[in-house]
């Protein structure tokens, strides 16, 4: 498929295509009242509607019917071009019992004066053009054009063209261009499209062919011959770019000499190469001016700037001529002499005519169906527009309602077809989305605020028409259009949602520099179930009910490079710049640096410890995770450190925002689901949103975007946090490169990250007030007391704040040099960075009346560096939902306390079990048991990790490959500095007897060991410990609680309800990850499976639970239902 935007010598649209001022729109759509029926046409031409057909459509008086619209040519993308608003009336010509109108199909032809060639443009969004029929408006009768008085040029032949083009395949699955027949077998093909051209003359014509091929070496050669005479040859050079799927070649030649009315056109390719496809062939020639069927479209280059007389052979009293140059229908005044018909025109631009034989069978448009009244033009200003397919609209409306209530936004949910009806003549066109948004944008100058957000509530596909083989079987009705680049074969090809946000006058032709005016996001959902799950995720996130220190956590992951970039350290350098930006400007956050080369690489060339570290961090909870490096649609990095399978199997519940500066990670417009989409589409885990990539991207440009994005995410705008969509919009407004077009927001653009908005600050250390320039020392074995307060968003003491406080004290920063796993020449590729490698203390205490205090003992295992450490704070008031964060940096770590406590006894293990407290030595467990140890120590547990051999360890079967460092899993019991929990989900074990050794140290380096055995049994069913319902009795709804022994496992839960006679009434089955030591909850609205509310009485409910394909565990109980 070829879409080109060139200078058109066709006249501007004179009547129906009136150019509206940028802020002028109909106050009400024509579709607001009356009966409207939608019809379609496939090709440019004259179409006939009989009065009988109009009556069958429900119109009582066909003489009052008019036609509206402008068909299927692609809309102008440049908003400096004139465009029509709403649905203009189309002139019609009426016969005795029928009407004729000129319909535009999906191929637009223009004459390029530079190449002297007719050029075609296909609509990349639709296979038909659409119009509307109504009797609700005044009729628009075709005018008659009088003959010109003088005509020196005699026209007896006209310029015609034929096109052969089949849209069958896209080698790169990107861009607008689709390609036709496969020539990889190097077999010649006869093109039958041109097998009959009656009336062709010997005048010079033109032949254009475009071909693509992926040539490994040498040169590819495509030839076209007509009647065994080679006319055209295209040479295609070898392709050395791995990101280019094929190279295109195009040639136009003059076609001279005598021409057969039945030409034999043959195309040949010379070698066995890949991705060898014909794009199209255009023939341009002259034909004798006479009717060739019921409708003949014609034009004459000889008439340009010349007063001309057109003479038509073979005419009769049934022959009509219409001028259709501007898309209207105007009857030409003609003279008939025998079988010769003539008409004259004055000098001027190229004109298009239609020769019609009314006594022959004329094409009829296809009936699509009646259109309900609608009036998008009459809407008030909106803050947010959600475009949703009808099948997903219920879920889109749920999200809209949440934004109305939670954020006070005016939100509109609208179907794509409703937009097409008023903004693209009912024809699918991506630019219609822009036009609709621009109406609100332009009206805001006088009618309120401009729109802020656009959410595309549906997946998309590169082949918007669904004509290629790998897209044809998909359900496109649940998808929204994508904006694809013209480039379709190499790394310059892109898909971007930015296009829909370009609303300024004159925008649309320079996407790299045009400015986004709204924040845009997309939900790549294809089914109502996916849509419901994603709305559930967003609503839960908006409620911000999941408190925890995870909101202070940011993770930065960096690739170690690849052979393609000579194993550069640039990925780590960029990730570290971002992390240090946070440390410098927002020390209230904790940064986790995961740089591949800082970890050992195993013999297979992968980084299992990096994988485990990412898994551990995601499980503990992250506000945001940022990846810089190589990637694909299925994984991060060449080493597949984090894969689509990992994403799909994730069960962590605190959802981060993902930033992925890597190639192709979220190629949402491919038929298959990408890894980035899987992050979002994971029903209960994954991520809440992604700033991510859809195509090949480049490191330096990625870094610029990453830097700008972090500034917009973490810096307030006039004291207000930017939403995700606003952050992306402002980021892209600051950049002027094409690379930014390959970044997309997957998620809700009106959503704001759940930053704690209050400040937690330290006021005193060991009773001494903190102050400017004051530095404290945290000495080994010293007891430190920290006092502080919580300030509200205005900086005043939050005296009403009471709740939990979480504190983390980090040892001083250290310089870390990566391992140099990659060696180029004789030089290992190493990178040096600063980090806080060791933790001194992690505690949980309380805040009362906005004040807090806690104490801890500094471990013996510290760095003794005398350098600055970091104290991080997070606080939450559950009663109000307010949260606070902060940090304290004015202390150094070093020295030893003058008086040390005397403690020679290791930690006491007060409780240790797998899965639940009923576990006994040698007990049976599932393959991924959950380990819990409750420990106590007089001085405190050592979790610093700064001294070899003093870590909290769990070792399975004495194997180094199954030895797990559990320092990060230790947490103090609230309010205690001596008692804490170690909790860890053991990776999958094989069936059989296993031995485990648990080892733990206190801060004075006294240790305790505990060895126990257990048996892994395949398919072991869970233990359904308790089943109950609340409220019971129930009046409006009831929640069933299932208490079990499979924390952090994938569970399938079934609940069934019966009446007391045993008659089945209702059931549901749900799957998802179980939260740590929390019951699984299933809700019921007291309606049976038919939607009828059950009667008051006593009912029996039964629950079943299974995990990872195990057998079911079941329990039953009774429920009382009260009358309403």
From TrEMBL:
Protein name listed in UniProt: Type IX secretion system sortase PorU
Pfam family, one: Peptidase_C25
Gingipain domain residues: 384-753
Organism this protein belongs to: Candidatus Parabacteroides intestinipullorum
Keyword Disulfide bond: no
Database matches in Gene3D superfamilies: 2.60.40.4070, 3.40.50.1460, Gingipain r, domain 1
Signal keyword on record: yes
Molecular function GO terms recorded: cysteine-type peptidase activity
Range of residues in the leader sequence: 1-21
GO BP of this protein: proteolysis
Keywords noted in UniProt: Signal
Superkingdom as given in the UniProt entry: Bacteria
UniProt xrefs under InterPro entries: Caspase-like_dom_sf, Gingipain, Gingipain_N_sf
């Amino acid at each position: 498929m070829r879409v080109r935007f060139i200078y058109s010598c066709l006249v501007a649209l004179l009547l129906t295509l009136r150019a509206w001022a940028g802020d002028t729109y109909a106050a009400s759509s024509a579709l607001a009242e009356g009966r409207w029926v939608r019809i379609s046409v496939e090709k440019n031409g004259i179409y006939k509607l009989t009065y009988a057909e109009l009556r069958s459509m429900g119109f009582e008086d066909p003489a009052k019917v008019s036609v509206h619209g402008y068909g299927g040519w692609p809309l102008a993308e440049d908003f400096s071009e004139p465009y029509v608003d709403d649905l203009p009336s189309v002139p019609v010509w009426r016969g005795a019992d029928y009407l004729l109108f000129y319909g535009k199909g999906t191929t637009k032809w223009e004459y390029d004066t530079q190449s002297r060639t007719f050029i075609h443009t296909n609509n990349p969004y639709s296979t038909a053009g659409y119009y509307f029929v109504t009797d609700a408006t005044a009729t628009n009768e075709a005018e008659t054009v009088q003959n010109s008085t003088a005509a020196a040029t005699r026209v007896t032949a006209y310029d015609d063209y034929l096109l052969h083009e089949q849209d069958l395949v896209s080698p790169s699955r990107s861009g607008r261009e689709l390609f036709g027949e496969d020539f990889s077998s190097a077999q010649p093909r006869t093109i039958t499209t041109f097998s009959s051209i009656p009336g062709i003359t010997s005048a010079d014509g033109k032949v254009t062919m475009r071909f693509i091929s992926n040539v490994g070496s040498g040169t590819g050669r495509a030839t076209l011959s007509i009647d065994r005479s080679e006319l055209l040859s295209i040479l295609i050079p070898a392709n050395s770019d791995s990101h280019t799927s094929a190279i295109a070649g195009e040639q136009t030649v003059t076609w001279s000499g005598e021409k057969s009315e039945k030409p034999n056109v043959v195309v040949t390719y010379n070698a066995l190469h890949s991705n060898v496809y014909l794009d199209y062939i255009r023939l341009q020639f002259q034909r004798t001016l006479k009717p060739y069927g019921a409708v003949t479209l014609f034009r004459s280059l000889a008439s340009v700037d010349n007063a001309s007389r057109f003479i038509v052979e073979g005419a009769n009293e049934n022959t009509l001529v219409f001028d259709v140059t501007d898309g209207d229908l105007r009857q030409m005044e003609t003279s008939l002499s025998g079988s010769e018909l003539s008409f004259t025109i004055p000098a001027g631009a190229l004109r298009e005519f239609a020769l019609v034989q009314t006594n022959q069978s004329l094409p009829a448009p296809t009936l699509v169906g009646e259109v309900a009244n609608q009036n998008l033009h009459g809407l008030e200003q909106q803050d947010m527009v959600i475009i949703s397919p009808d099948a997903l609209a219920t879920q889109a409306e749920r999200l809209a309602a949440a934004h109305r209530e939670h954020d006070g936004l005016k939100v509109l949910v609208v179907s794509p077809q409703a937009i097409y009806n008023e903004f693209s003549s009912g024809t699918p066109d991506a630019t219609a989305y822009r036009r609709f948004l621009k109406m609100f944008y332009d009206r805001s100058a006088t009618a309120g605020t401009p729109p802020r957000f656009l959410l595309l509530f549906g997946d998309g596909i590169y082949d918007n028409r669904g004509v290629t083989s790998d897209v044809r079987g998909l359900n496109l009705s649940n998808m929204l259009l994508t904006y694809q680049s013209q480039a379709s074969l190499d790394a310059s090809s892109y898909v971007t949602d930015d296009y829909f946000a370009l609303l300024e006058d004159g925008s649309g032709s320079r996407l790299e520099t045009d400015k986004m005016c709204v924040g845009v996001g997309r939900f790549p959902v294809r089914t109502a179930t996916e849509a419901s799950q994603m709305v559930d995720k967003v609503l839960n996130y908006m409620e911000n009910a999941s408190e925890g220190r995870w909101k202070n956590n940011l993770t930065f992951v960096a690739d170690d490079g690849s052979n393609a970039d000579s194993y550069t350290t640039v990925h780590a350098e960029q990730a570290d710049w971002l992390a240090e930006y946070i440390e410098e400007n927002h020390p209230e956050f904790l940064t986790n640096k995961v740089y591949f080369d800082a970890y050992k690489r195993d013999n297979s060339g992968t980084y299992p410890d990096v994988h485990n570290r990412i898994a551990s961090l995601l499980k503990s909870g992250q506000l945001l995770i940022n990846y810089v490096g190589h990637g694909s649609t299925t994984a991060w990095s060449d080493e597949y450190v984090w894969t689509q399978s990992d994403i799909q199997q994730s069960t962590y519940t605190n959802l981060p925002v993902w930033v992925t500066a890597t190639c192709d990670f979220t190629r949402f417009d491919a038929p298959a689901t990408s890894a980035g989409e899987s992050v979002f589409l994971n029903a209960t885990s994954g991520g809440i949103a992604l700033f991510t990539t859809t195509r090949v991207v480049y490191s330096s440009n990625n870094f610029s975007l990453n830097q700008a994005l972090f500034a917009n995410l973490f810096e307030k705008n006039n004291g207000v946090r930017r939403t995700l969509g606003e952050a992306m919009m402002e980021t892209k407004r600051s950049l002027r490169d094409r690379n930014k077009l390959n970044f997309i927001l997957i998620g809700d653009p009106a959503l704001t990250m759940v930053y704690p908005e209050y400040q937690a600050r330290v006021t005193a250390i060991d009773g001494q007030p903190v102050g400017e320039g004051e530095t404290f020392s945290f000495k080994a074995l010293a007891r430190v007391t920290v006092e502080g307060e919580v300030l509200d968003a205005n900086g005043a003491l939050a005296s009403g704040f009471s709740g939990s406080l979480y504190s983390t004290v980090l040892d001083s920063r250290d310089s870390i040099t990566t391992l140099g796993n990659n060696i180029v020449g004789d030089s290992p590729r190493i990178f040096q960075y600063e980090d806080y490698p060791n933790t001194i203390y992690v505690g949980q205490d309380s805040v009362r009346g906005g004040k807090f205090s806690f104490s801890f003992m500094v471990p013996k295992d510290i760095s003794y560096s005398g350098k600055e450490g970091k104290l991080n704070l997070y606080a939450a008031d559950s009663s109000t939902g307010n949260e606070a964060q902060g940090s304290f940096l004015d202390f150094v770590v070093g020295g030893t306390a003058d008086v040390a406590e005397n403690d020679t006894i290791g930690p006491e293990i007060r409780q240790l079990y797998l899965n639940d407290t009923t576990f006994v030595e040698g007990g049976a467990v599932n393959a991924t048991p959950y380990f819990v140890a409750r420990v106590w120590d007089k001085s405190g547990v050592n979790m610093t990790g700064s001294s070899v051999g003093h870590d909290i360890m769990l070792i399975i079967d004495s194997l180094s490959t199954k030895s797990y460092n559990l320092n990060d899993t230790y947490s103090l019991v609230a309010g205690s500095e001596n008692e804490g929990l170690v909790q860890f989900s053991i990776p999958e074990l094989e069936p059989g007897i296993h031995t485990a050794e648990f080892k733990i140290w206190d801060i004075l380096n006294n240790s305790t060991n505990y060895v126990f055995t257990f048996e892994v049994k395949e398919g072991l069913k869970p233990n359904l410990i308790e089943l109950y319902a609340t409220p019971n009795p129930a009046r409006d709804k009831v929640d069933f609680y299932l208490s079990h022994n499979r924390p952090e496992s994938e569970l399938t839960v079934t609940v069934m309800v019966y009446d007391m006679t045993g008659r089945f009434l209702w059931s549901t089955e749900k799957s998802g990850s179980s939260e740590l030591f929390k019951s699984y909850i299933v809700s019921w609205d007291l309606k049976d499976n038919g939607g009828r509310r059950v009667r008051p009485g006593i009912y029996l409910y039964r629950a079943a639970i299974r995990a990872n394909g195990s057998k079911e565990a079941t329990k039953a109980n009774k429920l009382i239902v009260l009358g309403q």
